[in-house]
Amino acid sequence: MKANLFKIILTFLIVPINYCSAQKEDIHRVNEEQKIYELSFIWKELSYNFANMDNCPGLDMDSLYRAYLPIVQKTKNDFDYFLAINRFLAHFNNGHVLCNFPEYVWHHVNYPLLKTKHDKGSIYIDNIGYHYSNDVRIDDQILSINGISALDYFNQYAIPYIPVSNEEVKIDFSMFGSHFDMQSYSLKKDKTKLKLKVFTAKGIKKVTIPYDIDVYPSPKDTAKQHQKHYIDQSCKIEGNVFVVDTANKFTYISLTECNDDFFDFFWQKYDTILKYENLIVDVSHNNGGDGNAVVNVLCCLIDNDSIYTYSEKTRKNIALHKAWATTKILYYEDKDVPDFYKTEYYPYYYHTAFEDIKYGEGAKFANIASDSQRFKGNIYVITGLATASATEYFTVMLTQNKKVKFLGKKTVGALGQPLVVNLPSGMRVFINTTKTYDFNGNDISSGFTPDYIYDFSSFYKTENPNELLQKFIEVIKSIK
Predict the structure, then answer these.
(1) Is 98 helix (H, G, I), strand (E, B) or coil?
(2) For a FRET experiment, which of 57, 118, 327, 366 has its CA 20 to 30 Å from that of 342?
(3) Would you identify the CATH topology of the domain 241-284+288-312+359-411+450-479?
(4) Residues near 205 by Cβ (< 8 Å), separated by ≥ 6?
């Protein structure tokens, strides 16, 4: 049955956040003039290429640029400068508008040994160093951080750095220990500490957490780092997982990254999957990766000879049309202007002109999986607040299979192809260039909403994959 499936190359990209090791170097490389130049370059590229201003209500790009000129000029070191750029980009509320810091800065920053979680306006300990376990435990509520109420602390110091439009994702990604928090919470090596006031079973406790964990520990630091491990992992089930429930005729597969393992792991289990009526595909913890890696799995899970791609649009800039608009808007103050003129030319002045991408609505490619290789049963896709980019592409593409139901939380909102901008400082900036639509024509650039909203976060605390599957089956049976 396992004939080779040849990979189809598509241009879908996730933004990888990959901080590689490098020699320790000075953290004062970028001078004031270069900071102004780089901010200006980013602003220029955003002005011409960013496609999602409708997800930024009330934001004026030019006013924001002017406000950040003195901010970046006054930054004290490179790390503070990159933080300022990161915060500037977060105003655009898009998971594909962000920056990667240069490698060298990570050798000058530390990180606190603390993981937190948010639930209904309150902040709780999700994990902490074992040597604090006599004072506080997992699930204890944090009342304040450095004298500020815990929620206000995150609203002030973290959420402004999170580059997504989904408000629930913003607070989730702002937590200590999330994959986005490092850029807002890592600090230049000094004696800064987090002073926590925690509500515990034994009353209110005060705990001080130092910033003593190197983001990139040197070899001599390795032993010290390993001694400062967490109490326990709050998510017990990690990595790709596969489990079967014969009695209920269900298989469950969790795919945690869009790379070669995405298809390889799926294909190893696929003969078994084909024997069952129901398949649960869990991508709730998958941040994305390479869009090409998911195509073969899509071919197996979409029972059509042709697979359609969803529609995308990109910004259209015609200088002459913008110039014609300026004569009416600026000289005639928008008076007595024919409607056709406003329809045809004004969008180029207001940056709202878009065009369909050539592989947009109606585009398709042949399904390379034979009829016998396609799954015919019911599919349940689990999405979460971490489902992003290439995984969102995978999720949206599956909506053309009418036997698929989606459960979980709204996804990140990192669909679309980012423009990659490399700057002299070594910073790499990503700018989203497309608006994305589902197969019903709905704009999903800010995230994909599943059919059934459900918080599955507590499910993953079990160590037993079979128990996890049973929990999912209970929910699925309740919605049938």
Answers:
(1) strand
(2) 57
(3) 2-enoyl-CoA Hydratase; Chain A, domain 1 (3.90.226)
(4) 135, 136, 197, 198
